[in-house]
C-alpha cells in the first residue's frame, strides 16, 4: 500500500489507535496531519512519523469540540499540503454512565464523538471530491451491542449514530467517487479507559475479562486496528463503501 503524495488527516493522533495509524500511514509515505489536544504527545508521534520516511508531518493542536479549532485544521492543511486524500475521524472519548446519571453525559458524548465528525467530514468533502479520497470513521462494537459490566449508554448511542452517519454519507458521496467506511474495534489497550475515568484497578479488571472471555482469548493491539484503517483507506479497498468492519477477537459473538 503506497500513500506517496497522499495527504491523510488523523484526529486523535496523539494516543492509542490514532497514533498507531499515523505512524503506519507515514511508513507508507503519506503526508500526515496529526490532530489532538496534547501537544507533547503530538510532537512525540510526529517524530516517529518523520523517522519512518523522512516526511515532515503537520501537527495541529485542536479541541474538536471547538468549531474554530476544527476549521483551523483545514486551513492549515490546505496551506501546508494543498490537498486532502483521507480523513480518519478517530478521536473519541468513552463517557461512563447510564440512564440514572443525567442527560449531560449524552450532550458531552455527542459533542465529542459525533458533532466534530459531522463538521470535519462536511469541511473535508470538497477536497475529497477533488482527490476522489475517502473517510474512515473509528466507531466501536459499542455501536452494535451494549458494553457489558460498565454503563456506557451515551457512548454506545454516539457510536451507533456514527455508524449510520457512515452509511448515509457513503451513499451521498458515492456518485462523486468518495468512499466512507467504519472500523469498529472491541476493547483495545490504549489510554481509552483512563480517559473515560476508570481507575487502574477497573481497567485491569476490564482487560482481564476481555482477555479471558473474548473467543480468541485476547484483545487487539492499536497497530492491528491501524492496519485495518490503512487497508480501507487504500486503493485495495476501492470497491468498499458504507461498510462497518468489526475487529474484536470475537467479542461480538458472546
Ligand atoms: N480502546 C478501546 O477499547 C476502543 C474500543 C472501541 C473503539 N474505540 C475508539 O477508538 C478511538 C480512539 O481511541 P483510543 O482507544 O485510541 O483512545 P485514546 O488513547 O484515549 O485516544 C483518544 C484520542 O482522541 C483524542 N481526543 C479526545 N477528545 C478530543 C477532543 N475534544 N479534541 C481533540 N482530540 C480529542 C485524544 O487527544 P488528546 O489526548 O491529545 O486530547 C486522543 O488522541 C475512539 O474514537 C474510541 O471511541 C476505542
From TrEMBL:
GO biological process, one term: lipid metabolic process
Listed GO MF terms: oxidoreductase activity
Domain Ketoreductase: 6-186
UniProt keywords, alphabetically: Oxidoreductase
Species in which this protein is naturally found: Parnassius apollo
InterPro entries named among the record's database cross-references: KR_dom (IPR057326), Sc_DH/Rdtase_CS (IPR020904), SDR_fam (IPR002347)
Top-level division of the source organism's lineage: Eukaryota
Entry annotated with the keyword Transferase: no
Record-given protein name: (apollo) hypothetical protein
Amino acid at each position: 500500500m503506497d500513500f506517496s503524495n497522499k495527504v491523510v488527516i488523523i484526529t486523535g493522533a496523539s494516543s492509542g489507535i490514532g497514533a498507531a495509524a499515523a505512524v503506519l500511514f507515514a511508513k507508507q509515505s503519506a503526508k500526515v496531519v496529526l490532530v489532538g489536544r496534547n501537544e507533547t504527545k503530538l510532537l512525540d508521534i510526529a517524530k516517529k512519523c518523520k523517522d519512518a520516511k523522512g516526511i515532515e508531518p503537520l501537527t495541529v493542536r485542536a479541541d474538536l469540540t471547538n468549531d474554530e479549532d476544527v476549521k483551523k485544521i483545514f486551513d492549515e492543511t490546505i496551506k501546508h499540503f494543498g490537498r486532502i486524500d483521507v480523513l480518519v475521524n478517530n478521536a473519541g472519548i468513552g463517557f461512563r454512565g447510564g440512564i440514572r446519571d443525567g442527560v449531560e453525559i449524552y450532550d458531552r458524548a455527542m459533542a465529542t464523538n459525533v458533532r466534530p465528525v459531522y463538521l470535519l467530514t462536511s469541511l473535508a468533502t470538497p477536497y475529497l471530491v477533488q482527490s476522489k479520497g475517502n473517510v474512515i470513521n473509528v466507531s466501536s462494537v459499542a455501536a452494535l451491542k451494549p458494553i457489558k459490566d460498565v454503563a456506557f449508554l451515551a457512548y454506545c448511542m454516539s457510536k451507533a449514530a456514527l455508524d449510520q452517519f457512515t452509511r448515509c454519507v457513503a451513499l451521498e458521496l458515492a456518485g462523486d467517487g468518495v468512499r466512507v467506511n467504519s472500523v469498529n474495534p472491541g476493547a483495545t489497550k490504549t489510554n481509552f479507559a483512563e480517559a473515560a475515568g476508570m481507575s487502574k484497578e477497573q481497567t485491569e479488571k476490564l482487560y482481564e475479562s476481555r482477555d479471558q472471555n473474548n473467543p480468541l482469548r485476547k484483545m487487539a493491539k492499536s497497530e492491528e486496528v491501524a492496519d485495518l484503517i490503512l487497508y480501507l483507506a487504500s486503493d485495495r479497498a476501492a470497491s468498499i463503501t458504507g461498510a462497518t468492519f468489526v475487529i474484536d477477537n470475537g467479542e461480538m459473538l458472546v
